[in-house]
Design a protein that fits this description.
- The complex is a heterodimer of chains A (556) and B (609).
- Chain A has 556 residues and is an alpha+beta fold.
- Chain A has two domains: 256 residues, PmbA/TldD fold (2-Layer Sandwich), CATH 3.30.2290.10; 250 residues, no CATH class.
- Chain A is 21% helix and 35% strand.
- In chain A, strands 1, 10, 11, 14, 15, 18, 19, 20, 21, 22, 23 and 24 form a twelve-stranded mixed sheet that branches. In chain A, strands 2, 3, 4, 5, 6, 7, 8 and 9 form an eight-stranded mixed sheet that branches. A two-stranded antiparallel ribbon of chain A has the order 12-13.
- In chain A, strand 16 and strand 17 form a beta hairpin.
- The longest helix of chain A has 28 residues.
- Chain A starts with a strand and ends in a 17-residue tail after the last strand.
- Chain B has 609 residues and is of the alpha+beta class.
- Chain B has nine helices and 28 strands.
- In chain B, helix 2 crosses helix 3 and helix 5 packs parallel to helix 6.
- Classes of the chains: A alpha+beta (556), B alpha+beta (609).
- At the A-B interface, helix 8 and strand 24 of A face helix 3, strand 24, helix 9 and strand 28 of B.
Chain lengths: 556, 609
């Protein structure tokens, strides 16, 4: 299984009726509950049993984004969507239809929002439940068939028993002013007219919010707004170096209130920064694959921990047979350097004044979010648990997450790398140079703003990860830095994390998106800069194209 | 391992009567190709008249018959190939498409034998003979031709036969060259189109190195025929059958197999540059396999593979039985062992495991990979830079026939491009000095092949390792190496170190954008505790990133040995020898293997009752 994290995707949207829908949502919840109860009691045929567990979820999504280039609107994306979702389980908590870690679900994506008060909603859930139930039954019987030959070494329940939670307070959509977003976007993108070295420059401003209604057969009833940072912006610039390889840079941000989006002037400054980086990257030399010590900034450390460690601490990865189970049975063992803690805390709304996109109150299984100490002083304490039990951890810790269309699994949300003996930036820089000299290396690497990465956690692959920084500098023992391009960071998790020798004390927040088997979800990393005594950089894939022959007419 | 090889230039162990490749009457032969036109027409005729039953009957008759057809003598095969090649060089051209500037033709006659025994009984057998024809037509010039930037593993399936019908042979050659020429024209223009859009990559180099030596002319084989393969292998049946009996008969062993594969080849190479060369090779592999499940239900597979080239010295029954008793011991140890769990630790690799690691390293030094945009090009631009610890020197010497009285299967006198084999230093005291080169040049080093263009009969040549020697100036005796491992474990206060035997590399996606990692599964993996106690684990894999892994070698043993194997890769499955010592690596990462447990048999085996 390959998991990908994309940092800084354009999220997006703005301008629907801003009235409270509370009573309408409560009525919808009732409709869902009624239909669910009917299925729970009556849904069966021949000598087959009824489902022992059902979960209904309705996601109502509002998505708006505008992308501008050189002062003009390039495209507008404006979507309202409604996604009903049914999870169905037959058998019992101990042995049900769960297959490769997942129960059975059925969902459909509706292009427009139907009236929540009409019978259509019940009809949709009726239809989905019927299909989900039949599929669940089939999976359950197939599973029993499989177990006749395959051996279950551990005897663990398939689904944990949990207390139901109810939270049905009124909810408001965050305000959206589409015109304001479009105007700000257009103004900022005009700034690219000052940078002929950029081949394409875009600014995107976006709003994305969703309301989720959830009921399950255990009694849970929830209405919640599940996009903590609905507003985002994204600035990107691309060009081709003289050898035909592409270079690019970006800036992004996410906020809670539309009013907190940067104003045109500050956006222009960011455009200038991005364009400047592209220009420098164009002229920077191609580097060759190397092994060297590295200083990686807070943003990159976050991505590094997310890929190298976070995905491997998901509960599912300790149980399913097609997973590498890297940290299975290692609770109580030291797995990272003792001067670091690792915490998952989706209940955290803000950190250092920044709104966290990974925050939520209730997870996708309807359980309240909470702070989980995953690693304390380097020693493994806990995993990211959904309701799928693993050895020694039979209950969820509120980390079951998914997008509107998928079944939840234990996932990261707000992941914090906490340094216990953090040092100042200056001290970290000094230690880094000292490490380069100690190893007698001609240079080290300074990685900045890791933009994306991926990790392999499935058996039959090597348990490795890749992280792609936006900027890589060669740092010489005298402190001189030289920007290079064409490389990415590749590593195997245990060796790489063990090689962290120092951490800074300042923490950096980065909001991002993460994709895995339960879908694309917003996540946040909070981490300090660290020194790694040895990293390996490999060549990036080539995307070569002859640079433009004539100058762009904009710059003639 | 006793192995010998008939090869141009080496002394044949036994002289045999001159004659063509013979087959004992009555042996079963599946004729895939090259059976001449008369039989085929007859077949067609019968098919019409008798329908499908008649066809089956005819096949049975055909399979039971020996090959009767006369084959041309080598001189005539050469002249037939040359006449069509020269005609194409002079005349092959249409509209304003480019003319060929270089043509080579390789025709290989192979005889292949495969036979498997279980519990003393034959379970499968296949024997076939066929011709392969691999043409190479190049358009453009030595500096820029159609050779694609990314290696294309296409195989030639051009039909050909060299019976007494010369015109028919020429007809087939004409067809093959014609196809190859048209494809070359198409690729040439595609490549020009690509360059116009993408520009020239900084690592682009000439497309074909000039032949920097007098063209090789060797019209007569050293040994008259390749070994009479089918007769020799038939006489080996009894050994294989007995070995397969020894493999079975234990309650825990669910399945076993003894299998022998052998082939003999005679290869003819002609090029428009004047190369005319014939060569003979023979190869065999004996496989012994045991299958079962561990106590915890994980599938177990214990295997041995004996590779060699002297069909007169196939492994004797005693040799196989020694291997089998070792395999059984290994099987029982693994049966009771624990499943491996993930860890990082210093690691001692036995000489066979290190052979695998160095071979994976050598693959990264193949010239073609330094200019292929889909390859990681890990070592491009690193000539004269430190890439390994300074006590290691790696050479490749295909000229060498024997080493420490062990024959080397990777030996040849000239490669599949007709270039004489040469000894090359790849890494000297840790510093990268050269790449393995076919005639496909690499930027930054002289545009000359170093005689490593190798290929299976149906493939185009690619630079490959042949006889890879790993030498160390920091070698200690193996006992000391284990002490060093324990010292490393204690120094770093680790719970254990790792010792691996018989590591096999698992092919990885190896292109840019992918995770460039080395991954291997050992035959045996031990946790070594600080007090020296060893504990076996099964289903472990080791994984690492290539540069870091190679640089973390801290010492080697003085126990280098010869390992002969058939090795897959671009250019096909090729006999390769590696001479390497055991090594100590400061750090390797262990992960779980990919098998799932199965429910063990419910009743006891009757063998136990």
């Amino acid at each position: 299984m390959k998991r990908v994290i994309f940092l800084a995707l354009p999220a997006a949207a703005l301008c629907w009726p801003m009235t409270a829908h509370g009573s309408q949502y409560a009525r919808a919840l009732e409709t869902m509950n009624r239909e669910m109860q009917r299925s729970l009691k009556q849904l069966s045929f021949d000598d087959n049993q009824t489902p022992y567990f059902l979960l209904y979820r309705l996601s109502i999504i509002r998505d708006f984004s505008v992308t501008c280039s050189y002062g003009d609107i390039g495209w507008i994306y404006d979507l309202e969507q409604q996604i009903p979702f049914v999870e169905s389980r037959v058998g019992s908590y101990d042995l049900d239809n769960t297959w490769d870690g997942f129960a059975t679900a059925q969902s459909m994506s509706m292009g427009s929002v139907v009236d929540l008060d009409t019978g259509t909603l019940a009809h949709q859930f009726w239809h989905l439940t019927d299909t989900a139930y039949k599929n669940a039954l089939r999976k359950y019987l197939e599973k029993k068939a499989r177990l006749a030959q395959e051996l279950e070494v551990e005897s663990l329940p398939d689904f944990s028993r949990e207390e139901p939670h109810i939270a049905t307070a009124d909810i408001r959509w965050p305000d959206l002013d589409k015109n304001l977003l479009m105007e700000r976007c257009r103004e900022a993108s005009k700034e690219f007219r000052r940078y002929p070295e950029v081949q394409f420059g875009y600014v995107t401003m976006a709003y994305k919010s969703d309301i989720r209604l959830l009921v399950n057969s255990e009694g849970a009833q929830l209405i919640q707004q599940s996009a903590p940072t609905p507003y985002s912006f994204y600035i990107t610039a691309e060009a081709r170096a003289s050898d035909g390889l592409s270079v690019d840079s970006y800036r992004s941000g996410q906020v809670i209130e539309g009013s907190a989006l940067p104003y045109s002037e500050s956006l222009k400054t960011l455009v200038g920064e991005v364009a400047g980086e592209v220009k420098t990257l164009k002229e920077s030399p191609l580097a060759t694959p190397e092994v060297a010590p590295a200083l990686i900034d807070g943003e990159s450390t976050g991505v590094f921990f997310h890929e190298a460690l976070g995905h491997r601490l998901e509960g599912l990865r300790q149980r399913e047979k097609n997973e590498l189970q890297t940290f299975k049975g290692k609770v109580g063992e030291r797995i990272i350097p003792p001067f670091l803690n690792l915490i998952s805390d989706p209940s955290l709304e803000q950190f250092a004044g920044v709104a966290l996109s990974g925050h939520y109150r209730y997870d996708s299984e309807g359980l309240p979010s909470r702070r989980v100490l995953l690693i304390e002083k380097g020693v493994l304490k806990n995993y990211l648990m959904s309701r799928r039990p693993i050895q020694g951890f039979l209950n969820s810790n509120g980390s079951g997450r998914s997008d509107p269309e998928n079944l939840p699994e234990g996932r990261m949300s707000v992941l914090m790398v906490e340094p216990l003996q953090g040092v100042s930036d200056e001290e970290l820089g000094r230690r880094f140079l000292a490490e380069i000299k100690r190893q007698g290396k001609p240079f080290g690497f300074h990685l900045q703003a890791m933009r994306s990465g991926e990790a392999q956690t499935g058996r039959g692959s090597s348990q490795s990860f890749i992280s792609r920084p936006r900027l890589i500098y060669k740092v010489y023992p005298d402190g001189r830095e030289e920007l290079v391009r064409g490389l990415e960071y590749v590593g195997t998790p245990l060796v790489s994390i063990e090689k962290i020798i120092a951490a800074g004390k300042k923490l950096t927040v980065k909001n991002a998106y993460c994709g895995s088997s339960s879908g694309f979800i917003p996540v946040t990393q909070i981490a300090p800069a660290v020194i790694i005594s040895e990293i390996e950089l490999q060549r990036q894939s080539e995307d070569r194209f002859r640079p433009p022959i004539l100058k762009s007419p904009i710059f003639q | 391992m006793t192995i010998k090889k008939f090869q141009a230039g080496s002394t044949p162990p036994v002289r045999r009567t001159p004659g063509l490749l013979r087959t004992a009457p009555g042996s079963r032969i599946q004729v895939k190709n090259g059976n001449g036109p008369i039989k085929k027409h007859l077949l067609f005729h019968l098919n019409l008249k008798l329908g499908s039953w008649g066809l089956k009957l005819f096949f049975l008759l055909l399979c039971a018959a020996p090959i009767l057809q006369a084959e041309m003598p080598p001189s005539e095969i050469f002249s037939t190939m040359v006449v069509e090649m020269e005609r194409a060089k002079a005349q092959l051209h249409f509209e304003d498409y480019p003319r060929p500037y270089f043509i080579s033709l390789r025709a290989v006659k192979t005889a292949a034998w495969q036979q498997g025994f279980r519990d003393g009984e034959e379970v499968f057998s296949s024997h076939d003979e066929r011709w392969y024809l691999t043409p190479q037509v190049r358009v453009g010039d030595y500096l820029f031709d159609q050779s694609p930037d990314t290696w294309d593993p296409q195989r030639s399936d051009a039909p050909v036969s060299f019976s007494d019908n010369v015109l028919l042979a020429r007809h087939h050659i004409r067809n093959a060259i014609d196809d190859s020429y048209k494809q070359a024209c198409s690729l040439y223009l595609q490549k020009k189109a690509k360059r116009s859009a993408e520009g020239v990559p900084e690592y682009a180099a000439d497309d074909l190195a000039y032949l920097n030596e007098a063209p090789l002319v060797k019209l007569n084989p050293d040994v008259e025929p390749p070994a009479p393969l089918f007769e020799l292998m038939k006489s080996y049946n009894s050994v294989l059958s007995l070995a397969s009996k020894s493999l079975s008969g234990e309650p825990l062993i669910l399945r076993s197999l003894a299998r022998a594969d052998a082939d003999s080849r005679r290869s003819y190479l002609v090029t428009t540059e004047g190369v005319r060369a014939v060569s003979d090779t023979t190869n065999y592999q004996v496989y012994l396999s045991l299958f079962g499940n561990s106590q915890a239900g994980m599938p177990l597979h214990v295997m041995r593979q004996l590779t060699g080239y002297d069909l007169n010295a196939l492994p004797a029954l005693e040799k196989l039985q020694t291997e089998i008793s070792e395999m059984k011991k290994e099987f029982h140890l693994l049966y009771a062992s624990k499943e491996a769990k993930s860890a990082i630790a210093p690691c001692l690799l036995d000489n066979q495991s290190s052979a695998e690691l160095f071979l994976a390293f050598a693959a990264k030094l193949e010239g073609e990979r330094q200019r292929d945009p889909q390859e990681p090009q890990t070592f491009r631009g690193k000539i004269n830079q430190q890439v390994l610890p300074d006590f290691l020197t790696i050479t490749d010497d295909p000229m060498k026939v024997m080493h420490w009285e062990e024959p080397l299967v990777g030996h040849y006198d000239y490669d599949e491009e007709g270039v004489r084999s040469k000894k090359i230093v790849l890494v000297e005291k840790g510093v990268l000095k050269n790449f393995l080169l076919s005639r496909r040049p690499v930027k930054g080093i002289p545009v000359i092949s170093n005689g490593h263009g190798r290929a299976a009969p149906d493939q185009l040549p690619h630079a490959r390792a042949a006889n890879l020697f790993v030498e160390s100036s920091k070698d200690v005796e193996p006992g000391r190496l284990k002490e060093l491992l324990l010292e490393e474990v204690k120094k770093r206060r680790l719970p254990f170190g790792i010792r691996l035997e018989g590591l096999k590399a698992i092919p990885q996606e190896d292109r840019t954008g992918a995770h460039q990692t080395f991954r291997g599964a050992p035959k045996l993996m031990y946790y070594v505790y600080p007090n020296g106690r060893e504990e076996l684990a099964h289903h472990g894999e080791v994984v690492g990133t290539p540069i870091k892994l190679m640089q973390s070698i801290i010492a080697t043993g003085d126990d280098a040995e010869v390992f002969n194997m058939l090795r897959g890769g671009p250019g096909g499955e090729l006999p390769t020898s590696v001479i390497s010592p055991s090594i100590l690596i400061s750090e390797i990462e262990v992960q779980k293997g990919s098998s799932r447990p199965v429910r063990p048999p419910i009743l006891k085996s009757p063998l136990e009752e």
